[in-house]
Amino acid sequence: MVFWERDWWRKWWEKRQRDCCECECECSWTKAAVWLAVLAVTGGVLALLILAFAVVKPPTASADDALLTRFELATSPNATARPPLQLLSYNATVTISLRNPNLHYGITFGAVAAVFSFNGTRFDESGTVPTISLAARKETTVRLRVGDVGRALPKLPAAGATEFAKQKEAGVFEVEVRLDTVMQYKGRKTKCPLVVICPLSLQLVDPDVAATAFQKTKCTILRAKIFGC
User: Fold this and answer.
1) At residue 74, what are phi and psi to the nearest 5 degrees?
2) Alpha-carbon distances of 128 from 116, 178, 188, 212, rounded to whole Å
3) Cα atoms in the 13 Å half-sphere on the side-chain side of 68
4) Distance from CA of residue 125 to its chain's centroid?
5) Which secondary structure element, helix H or strand E, spans residue 20, and what is its range?
6) CA 101 – CA 139 distance, rounded (Å)
7) What is the pLDDT tens value at each position of the chain, 229 positions in all?
8) For residue 21, what is the enclosing H or E element?
9) What distance in Å separates the CA atoms of residue 31 and residue 75, rounded to the nearest whole number?
10) Core-most of 71, 89, 99, 128, by most CB within 10 Å?
11) How far is it between the farthest Cα atoms of the chain?
């Protein structure tokens, strides 16, 4: 009987040791999983805070819609002009979207000056847009409408007139819209010169006929290399 009791006691002790070991192992794995989850959440929050406050992104822009209802080139009847002046008659409307991708910082744009060019020659600089305030993760649209009859283009070279004739025959004109402004991030003192360049392929359409669909075009953003911009 004594031997049986000793054997029972030994088996009971060994079983208890095994149970304790399994419990400790399970507890260790559970603690490790909890700590890993806490670290992952903390790391995600820190990454989000860094992205929101430390990383400042430039605005983005796209030409969402555009319409060209007149684009005619003629030679000036003034025979004394050397070289002869090229006269441009045009009507164009462009809608450009500006977006602020930042999670925290708002952006203020100063007065915006718009320039329209064909083949490297500016033909309209009359477009202007007042000051724009754009909150974080927000978007706004800028609508430009320009037009004139017989505007002189003294800087249009012969190659430009040839290119105009070629594009007229194709029915699609390559026009560039450039926006010049100064932007400032909310909470920062630095004022950053900013240029938005939108190359557009515009099909000449009859204003009395429904316009063709315009393909949305991504614009290029140029920023000054200044600290804080």
Assistant:
1) -140, 160
2) 12, 11, 25, 26
3) 20
4) 23
5) helix 2-49
6) 9
7) 444 555 665 665 555 555 555 555 555 656 666 667 666 666 555 555 555 555 788 999 999 999 999 999 998 876 565 667 889 999 999 999 999 999 889 999 999 999 999 999 999 998 889 999 999 999 999 999 999 999 988 788 888 889 999 999 998 999 999 999 999 999 888 999 999 999 999 998 887 775 567 889 999 999 888 888 8
8) helix 2-49
9) 84
10) 71
11) 135
Tell me, yes or no, if the pTM score tops 0.85.
Answer: no
DSSP string, 75-122: E-S-TTSSSPPEEEEEEEEEEEEEE---SS--EEE--EEEEEEETTEE
| Residues counted in the chain | 229
- 10 Å CB burial of residue 102 (0-12, 13-18, 19+) is buried
Query: HEC profile for 43-59?
Result: HHHHHHHHHHHHCCCCC
Tokens of 117: 């060019």
Level-2 CATH architecture, domain 60-223: Sandwich (2.60)
* Residue in the block written with tokens 């000793």: 6
The secondary element (H helix, E strand) that includes residue 217 is strand 217-218
